[in-house]
Design goal:
Blueprint lengths: L2 H7 L8 H23 L4 H8 L3 H9 L6 H9 L4 H9 L9
Helix pairs in contact: 2-6, 3-4, 5-6
Length: 101
């Protein structure tokens, strides 16, 4: 086997970069804030999924960090009466006080 073919067939390791780690941490934190908001609203995963057009298992996957939160999910929270400052907090972790939301 040629060296070129060996290089092509060799497994490509996933790069572990600081940026990639930061992205994972960000989505984990968003998931935790979403879960906290759902619980404060008194909704089950099934109820929330019904309101935002996602399955209960998708909500569970988002909350456990196995799936990223789709952007439209945040939009649908407004239809549930979630205030803009809470939506901002979910996305950024910031209370938005300085932004006058």
């Amino acid at each position: 086997m040629s060296q070129l073919l060996e290089k092509i067939l060799a497994p490509i390791p996933e790069p572990v970069t600081e940026e990639l780690t930061e992205i994972r941490v960000y989505y984990r934190d968003v998931a935790r804030r979403l879960q906290a908001t759902r619980k404060m609203l008194g909704l089950t995963q099934h109820d929330l999924g019904h309101h935002v057009g996602l399955s209960r298992s998708t909500i569970a996957n988002i909350e456990t960090g196995n799936q990223k939160c789709p952007l439209h999910f945040i939009h649908y929270l407004s239809q549930l009466g979630v205030p803009k400052d809470v939506q901002w907090w979910i996305v950024t972790g910031d209370d938005g006080e300085e932004l006058d939301l």
